[in-house]
Each structure stands twice: as structure tokens, then as C-alpha cells.
Amino acid sequence: MKGISTAEAKRQLLRLLDTGQASIPVPPHFDRHSRLVYVVVGSALGIMAALVVNGTYLITQDQKRGIASVVEVGLLALSILFTWWVVDRESALETHEVDKRLLAIAQELRGWGGGYADLRTPQMPTVTTYTVLRDGEWRDVPTLLLVEGDIIALAYGEMVPCAIALCGSHEGENRLERGQKLAPSMMREWIATADNDAWDPRVAGHSGMAGRVLFAALATPLQSHLELIAQHHRRTGRSVLQNQMSVVIRILVLRVLPGVVAAALVANVIIYGVVNRGGGMGVEAVLGKTAYVVFPFACAVMWPVFWIAARIFTSASGVVLFDALQRSKTEYEDMDDIDEFDVEALPPTKDVRVGIGAVLGHMRWLWSSCDHRNLSRSSNLAETLGNITVICSIDKEGTIAEPFCTPEQIVVPERDDYALLDLAEQQLGFIIDEGWEHYLPGLRPLGLDCGLNTAAHANARARIDSTHRRHNRMRCHGKALPAQDTCLCQIGRGIGFTTADLAQYRQLKEVDVFAPFHQATDSQVRLGVFGAASFTSAVVQAGDSVQMLTDGNVELVLGMCLDYFDGTEIRALDDRTMAMYYGLYLNALQQDLQCLAFAYRPLSVAAGCAQWPGTSSVYVDLHLDMEVTSTMSSDGSDGALASSPSVGSKSSRGGSFEESVDLPEHLTQAVRHALLQAKPRFAGGDEDLDDGDCDVDYSQAAMARFTTEEDFLRDVVSEQILLGLVTFSYEPKTDVCDFIEDLDIAGIRFVYFSRSRGRQSKSFAERLGLETDWNTCILLSSADGAQDGGYVEDHDIKARLPRGIENIRPHLREVDDIPLQVSLFAECTPESTREMIKVFQENGDVVCCMGSALKDSNTLTFAVADLAVGVEPIPHFNRVKPAHGEAAETANDGSISTAGALVTQYALGAALTCIPCPLFLQHDTSLYTLMQVVSEARRLLGSMQQAAVLLVAAALATALINLAAALCLLPPALPGFMQLWLLWAVVPLLAATLLFVPRYESIMSTMPLKNHAHVSDLSRFATYALVRSVPPVALTVLVYVTALARLLPDAPPLGRLSSTFGRRDWRVLTPDAQWALLAAQTYAMVAFAFHCVCVSATLMHRTRTTADFLPARNVAWVCGALVSLALTCAFGALLLAFGDAHLDRVGWYTYAIAFAGPVVLLPVQDLCKLHDKKRWTRLQKLAKLEFKTKLGLHSPL
Q1: What is the pLDDT of residue 462?
Q2: pTM, two decimal places
């Protein structure tokens, strides 16, 4: 049995990933067929039609203004076509982003040379890899790289990755489906009916995998994986800014535009009928002037182009910063002026500066390419980052906690009691309890066990990394506890064993014991720990003495022990003492801890009877012991063995509470001794004592009764002496607790979706710093069929909490919003987690989801979140196992991203898992990286919002300027080509400079807006828009009127300008009058450009005044303002270069009015901002109050 080859596996995977086979289209954000688009385009076409009629009429009257109208129509037509092309192209790029990512992964898969990472994958829930026979060798392969025909060595308790069948079984028989777990009860039935033993690795020639069960894969998991992604994946919903702009544009197009058109049309008709008395200028007076009033709304067809350019720039800025932060190896530090004890202090940052060249380079690539790297279009990357209100973690190990558990406490037996010794968190193996030396006699044998049996290397050399793992064959035989994979050699050193001391011992044999059919396995499963109970024993020799050191599953090891060592003498392990340690074990599990029991046994074997070949490992199962126990328990002659006594357990160090513990039957003293008497070596009774080997444990006569080495070792692991227990916990990763605390300041709620039960989830949440008081944890599992008792109340005050994901929405409708305010959800499945994320989104939250990049069930959860971040759960992803005689290779960056890295099975599996993920976090990257990118996104998003305000305000002001001119019986102050220059060149340039506003201090202490109820206070914003638009409109109109009054050849007095000019037939204007009109319009254009610069200076910050936030801090704005004014003046000079407009006639007061912008505009703008600040501050305080309100105050009892 050799399994399939890597080449064949690649061929099957590529058949699914190639073009045409895998397609996950994403609907674009821009709906080109919406009613609003049709109204905007229809309005633009109507304005163009009016200008065509007006221009044609004026050309027939020998008026040069007609040519300008026709040119303006042509430019508008080109702008509509260009905008349509840009939007259509952008939509196509967005639609095919995920497809391009699949093609990129396929390309990396083609280039994969079959290198498998030399990494013993830890057996933890966040890493779904399987032991697969590839190219004749057993490899760790991620789920999504499995293919039909693979031979999988499945361990008890492992989740089935796809449809599989027991090797050697008939077609359609002995099958398991995806999502099931291999249970010993299944194998008991299958073994009894199997025709052959092809499922046994030992029979198949792979004795090194003994204990596992061989299955053949009947399907390729990637196929159903891609189908499910296509079914669940969707584009991220509209961002807050997009929804705000949609509301504003809808108001402008559906309310303001009809009102302006009606006002202009009525005014022009009245003026034409009353003032001009039906003269021959009706076409220009009615159609032309009305068209120029609403011309700015036609110019708005270019707004989608500006929005797309801004979105690409912000996305490029965020991605480049994110990559730079991940490459940087410096630590996150608080700023010098930050008090670390200030609860409102800003989060630490890295001093990483991103060059504008790198941003523009990435922006240029994004403009022309599908962003398969970060999915910036379909995820609305920058806008989503800036609006995040919830960051949730759907995994623990390797995501927000270290991937390997670390020892927390040592339980040292004492006479009728025990002692708990705490271990230092930062220095593994260092006991921090004072006076711990008092327990040194009892600690020494446990320390020897830790130093030898759990050592990562035979010589137990010093290692700096506290997460290194032991080097044994345990994981080859089955699914062991993560604690059984943790090396504890430093505990041995902490107790006092040096490398020289440990070097005196030589390992003779490794015995890996699994008990899939033992009662301990059933108990472990009931407690939520799947897999066969197991322990490992090392037979070591020092001089002439041989002893066995054991550690593993507490219940199983306790069942192997008859005595315990209290530091002074060996005492019998009676039922009361056994219940005490068993109660400790249960209590540790309730506190989300793992626990290992340590034991030893001195061995003596008659000379020449036992052989310990080398240091090879042996697999042993205890199913025969189970049969003996079952037989004795069913025998009515000994009723005492059929009962499980309830014994009080005492707390450590004189604790006052007594707790009743139901001791399992197989742990009772009577059963343990009965099992001992049933051993083969006791079958001969006292005859064994006559052979002269009475001083040894195993005489020649006893050894003769063992038919195999496994039988002998099964007997050897019994009769052990308990040395103590060690508890293990998953510690939060570096900066995680501080990160969660700083999220609270930023108004972002951290949510942890735990798969564990309520008590265990609360225990880990407490380590994270989350609130674990009453009413802080919601169970998402249904009450129907639940094995636990549901909520456990610690107080008399009992709030009403929903149980089960199906009751969350009814609770929100009928009771209160508690489900949206808790930070902990327990008993979560991938399905309930996805549904809860949708609940958050339905209530306006923008959800960022973090999870393991090597857990294939995370993909669909990533797909429904607004933003997904894949996290490397373990380090050294791309360390490749070399072929024989070759040197080891290492990836360039150790990242799960295959770009620029040496491709391994882990990188490929992670890429397939993270198909919907825009961002990837390397294992050693601090979560503060995400926070710093969020901070930058908030800055850019606020700048985009202010830039949008400038664009809308400029368009509205331009329309009001021409409307005012029409009411003054004057020609348009700003003809179409000048409006095009202002609205397509000057204002966008000024708006673009706002994207470079420096980061301000309070940006990460501001509550983000939820994605609902946009622009709810419409009247207030309309008032602000009107008040802030009137001053520049009035100043520009005054400049136009005063300049025109002085420039006309036969200029009437200023007071009679309107009445005189209004009655004049514009068709017969002399060339001098036409040049005078053009010059006055040019003055108005330059003045309005200057006023736009002044207004843009007040848009650096929403609520801070110009004096408080100096515009000069934005160097880009200073340069943009100077350039825009210079270009506008140059454009005006070009317009007047071929005529004589007599500019010397313009009075000084015209220039005074034009340059009065800073004096008039800045105070008005700042006063509006101050008024808005009061309202904004109140809303911020209210939002923070609601965000931090004590949970449960509104829940009925």
C-alpha cells in the first residue's frame, strides 16, 4: 500500500481550479441599472439637449457663445462615456477578483514541487490536517489538499474530512461522511463484521502508524468547498460612506435638482415674458440660462470616477502599510507623552513610514488589475476597515492564544492532601510560590519525569523557545492531548536537574499506550475531549536500575496506579485520595485547563528475560483490560465492584470546602486490585515464587506467560506510583489582552466565539480580560439535546438570556439588545457563528472576523463577514523537509501567502482556506498591526468624507451662483466650460489633497458609526449646507456683478445694471461687450476657485476649527492650493489673451471682495463646525454610554 502520488493529487486539484471549473463571481457594488443612475444620466442628457438647441440657435445668430455650448455638450458626452467605461471596467474587475485568486492559487499549485514542510503539526482544533500516504510516505496534508483515492490514517476522535470508506470493506459499506467523528463504538462493530484487516496499519505494512484506522477517500474535499463558497460568498455590503453618499445623491437628484430646475425655469420664463416682453432671445433666456443653472448636476456624472480613484488610493495605502508593518521587526511602543496607566491612552504604534511612491505604485497596479491578493474591491477594504464596529475571533489556539499550551500549576501529593505550586508565566519551569523547596522531595521524581520523558531531545539541551515540543511517536498512533505534546524539560531544570544529571539516564523503550475502548475514553468524550485516552511511558536506565516514567490522561494513569508518593514514603491510593485527585482533574477541565498525571514504576526483570532493543517506540492498547473489567462488573458475586462510591474531596492547603465526587468504577481501589490479580503473571499463584526470582517483579515463569511484547508492556504499565499532576492552559498571545482593552477605547467590540462550554469559555475569557460577570455569556447551542444544564448563575440576580441561535432574533425584537453587547458566545458551531455574524450585520455592525488559516470550516464564516483576516496558527509554515541528501530549504518570509515564498502544503492549504480573506496575519505579527491599519483607514475614510462634502458643496454653490445671476437678469456667471474646469479639475484636486491630512490624536478614541440610519438628521445637515454655501456664492456673485458693471463699454450704474442688461437683446452684443462678459465671468471663476481653496482649508477635520487644526500641516494641500490657483489664473489668462477686455477698468473693491474669502468664509465655516461639534460631542457621549453600559440592566427578571 503506497497511496497515490503527489503528481496525481496535483492533477485532481488543478482540474477543479482551472478556468471554467471553479468560478465564484461577486456582484459589483456599483449598480449600473438602478433608478438613481437612470435619473442622473437622463438629467445629464436633458441638459445636453437643451445646450445643443441653445448652441445651435446662437451659432445661427453669429454668437461665439454657441460654439462654447456645443463644445460643452461634447465634453459632457465624452465624460458620460468615460465614466460608463470606468465603472463597467471596475465592476468587471470586482466581479472576477475571487476567480483571479483561484487562478493564482492554481498557478502556485502547478509550481509546487511536492515539498512537504518538515513540521509535526500540533493536534489542535484550529489546524485540520490529516496523516495521508503520499508517494509511499506518511505526510501531514491539509484538508483541502486531500483528493479522491488518498489513504488516510484516521485517529479516534478526528473529524472526517470527506466521504471515506474503511480500507478492505465492500463498496457502500463501512462509510463515514464529512463532519462525523471516528468513534471507538463504530470500530467495535466494523471489526466484528470485517472480512479482512486491511484497515489495520500493521497488517498493511505500516506498523509505525499502529492505533490509527486506514480509510480511503471517496471524494475530493476541495470540490464541495468551492461549491459552498460560491453559495455563501457575497460582496461586502455598502460601506457607511457609500450609504451616506447614496442618501445625499438621492436627495440632490430627486429633490434639489427638480427644485432648482423649477425655480430657474419659472424665473427665466417670468423674466422673458415680463422684462423682455417676448423678445427674440427666448431660446437662450429660457433654455440656455436654465441649462447652465443645473449644469453642475450634469458634471456629477464624473463623481463615480473620483470615488473609484479615491477608493483605490485608500486601499493601496492600507495594503502597503499593512505589509510594511508585517515586515517590520520592531516592537509596538507607546508614544513618549502617553501615560501607560491612563485607561484612555491611545494604542501603541510602530514608527513605520510608507513612501508615497510605494502607494502610487500599488495604486497603479490596482487600477489596471484584479486585486487577487487583497480583494480590495469586493471587500471595500479601506472603507470596511475604517468602519469596523465588531472584531470577532472564531478560534482560540494560534489566533488569540498561543498554539501550544503552557504549564500553569504543579500538584504535589502530600499525606492525605496536596499542594498547588504556581509556575511563572514568562519563565517556563520557574516555581514562583515562596517556600516551594519544602516540597522538593516530592518534586524530584516528577522533575526527573519531566526532564526525561517529556524532553524534546534525548540530551535535553537548553532551548530558549518555551513552546518547543517533545520528540516522540505519540502523535503517530493517535490523537493525543495538546498538553501531551508540550515539552517540560525546563520544569526539570527548574527543580534542579542539570543536563549532566539527565545524561546519566538512557532511554530503553518508548511505550505509547492508547485505550480507545477503555472507560477513560468514554469519560473524556463526555467532558468534551474527543479522542482515545492515552499516556506515554519511557523505560530508562541509570546504572543497573531500570524504571518507567509515565505521563498522560489523568483518568487513565490514575487507573494504572495503586500507590502515590508524598515526598517521604509511598502510600496506598485509596478511594478517598483517588477521588481527591479525580476531583482536581474535573475542576481543571471546568476551568478550561488541560491536565496530565505523572507516575513512575521501578522495574526488575529476571536476568535474560527482557530485551529493550534500541530506543524504538511500541504501540500498546488496553482493550483487553476493558474486557476484564466488564466481566467482573457483570459478575453478581462481587456487588461492591459494580458501584461507584461518592467520596468527599478536600481542597489544597487546608481549604474549607468539601465537594462530592462520583468516582468512576474503574478507579475504585477494589477494581484496580482485582484487575491486578487478573494479570497473566499472577495466574500461576505462588508457583512463581519457587523459581528463585522472588526479588524481581517479573520472574522467568511470569515472563513465559506473555506471548508478545505488547502483552508484556501492557502488564508493565500497571502498578505505577502517582507522582502528581500538572495543569496546562492556553495563554493569550503577546499584546492580545492590551489589544482588546484598546479596542474598547476605539469603540470596537471584541467578540469571542468559543466552541467550549460556558464555564470553560468564561475561564479563557477572563484571561483575555473580557467581562465574565453574570449575563456576559450567551450559549448558541440549542437547549434541545444539550448535555449540560445550560446557564449556571453565580448570583441571585438572573437576567433573561436567549439560549440557542434560533432565539437571538426574537430576543432582540421582544426583549432587549443584550446579544449585541456581550463579548462571549459559547458552545458555538460554524453554522451558529455565521448566523450570529449576520445578526450583527442586520443591526448595523461592520464585522471583522479573525480565524485560523488552516481550519477549512472557517472559510464559510470568512465569506459572510464584512472583512476576514486569516491568521497563521503555527509558526514555520514553509520549512520544507529535504529529500535524502539534500539541504533543508526555508521560505523567504514564512507566510501563508504563497506570493514570493517557497510553496508547501501548508501555504497551499491556507490559501484555499482563506479564499474570501483580504488580509493575512503571520503567526508572529501583533494584532496591533490590525489596529494601526484601522487607524489609518479611519483617517482616510474621514478625509474621503470631507472630500465628498467639498465636491457636493462646490456643485451646489455653482448652481446657486448661476441661479442668482439669472435672478439678477444677468447672463450666467459661470458658463459651462468654466464649470467643467472648476468641478473636474480645481475642486477634485483640492479634494484629493484632503486624503493627506495628518493623523490626529483622537482618531482611535472616536466611536465609529453603525451602518444604518444614515443622515437621519437631514434638516440639520441641510441647514449647515445652506449656511456654509451662501458666503462663497454671495462673494462670487458680487465679484461678477461689480466686474461686469465696470467692464461693459457703455456700463450703466451698478444699481441699474440688472434692469439695463436684462432688457438687452444678447443676440446683438458687440464684440467688446462679449469680451467684457467673458472677462467678468473669468473674474468670477478665479474668485470661486479661491473661495474653494478657503473652504477646503476648513475641511481638514470635521469639528476642529482652522486655528486648532492648521491647514499648513497638510503639505499636500498647500501645494494643491497653490497649483489650483495658478492653473486657474493661467486658464483665465488664456481665455482673455486674444481680446481686449480693458481689465484696468475693474475697481479695487472687486479685488477686495474676491480676496475677502478668508475673512468672511473661515469664521462662518468655523462657527458651523463649532455648532456641529456640540451635537457631535453629545452623540459621541451617548454612543460611548450605550457601548459601555453594564450588561443586563434592561433584561427582565
Answers
A1: 42
A2: 0.89
